Amino acid sequence: MPFILSQTDSIANHYIAEMRNVEVQQDRMRFRRNLERLGELFAYEISKHLPYEDVEIETPLGIAECALLAEQPVLMTIIRAGLPLHQGLLNVFDQADCGFIGAYRKTKKSGEFEIKKEYMTSPDLNDRIVIMADPMLATGRSIVLTCKELLGEYALKELHIVSAIASEEGIAHVKAYLPRAKLWIGAIDSELTSKSYIVPGLGDAGDLAYGSKLSN
């Protein structure tokens, strides 16, 4: 089952509420910062499930036994909308390797769309723990396409998918095609529009963070 951040009362609900609020959304910096804050909270929660090892640390007065991460994860995101969420994860996993993917919806004349992936840069992902950040999990098609390509090329140790807002349909799609992936979701909404926007959602995360773009 996915981990749902909003199911527990915490400050995360304030960040999600501000991200949804049409008035607060006018402040792009605040929108980006709230996504970043969610990324930090997700990183903390994910960190509880990663492998650790006991290490002796020398202090000015002696030796301290500490449990430290046994390995650093690889943080990946689909640009551009995922960048603030990715930064939040990186603020916590500050020694992590990073990878970036360029993928977008290509709209057809019929109104339907297909997912185009044109760019990826990353370290070797074999036997690595990968955390993929994508702020909006709508249909789930883009994240499934992206992750299946990674899984086809690399033998990942673990795959974690982080999204601020997800639809029920998107979660079902990911669970069907990426059954081993662990889902970390801020909040779940029930509806998708004909153009695959989540309702009530929050709108276009990329536009809210960085400004409007030309349509594909």
Shape verdict:
globular
The value of Rg in angstroms is 18 Å
CATH topology: Rossmann fold
Helix content: 25-40%
At the first level of CATH, the class is: Alpha Beta
Number of discrete helical segments: 6
Structural class: alpha/beta
Biggest sheet layout: 8 strands, mixed
Total domain count:
1
Overall residue-averaged pLDDT value = 92
Q: Report the uncertain regions.
A: none
- Roughly how many Å apart are the termini? 34 Å
Describe what you observe in this structure.
It is a single chain. The protein has a single domain, classed as Rossmann fold, CATH 3.40.50. The model has no long low-confidence stretch (mean pLDDT 92). By secondary structure, it is of the alpha/beta class. It contains six helices and twelve strands. Strand 5 and strand 6 (113-121) form a beta hairpin.
What topology emerges from the helices and strands here?
Elements: E1 3-4, H1 12-20, H2 28-47, E2 52-59, E3 62-69, E4 74-79, H3 83-92, E5 97-107, E6 113-121, E7 129-133, E8 136-137, H4 141-153, E9 158-167, H5 168-177, E10 182-189, E11 191-192, E12 198-199, H6 205-210
Parallel strand pairs: 1-10, 4-5, 4-7, 7-9, 8-9, 9-10
Antiparallel strand pairs: 2-3, 5-6, 11-12
Helix pairs in contact: 1-2, 2-3, 4-5
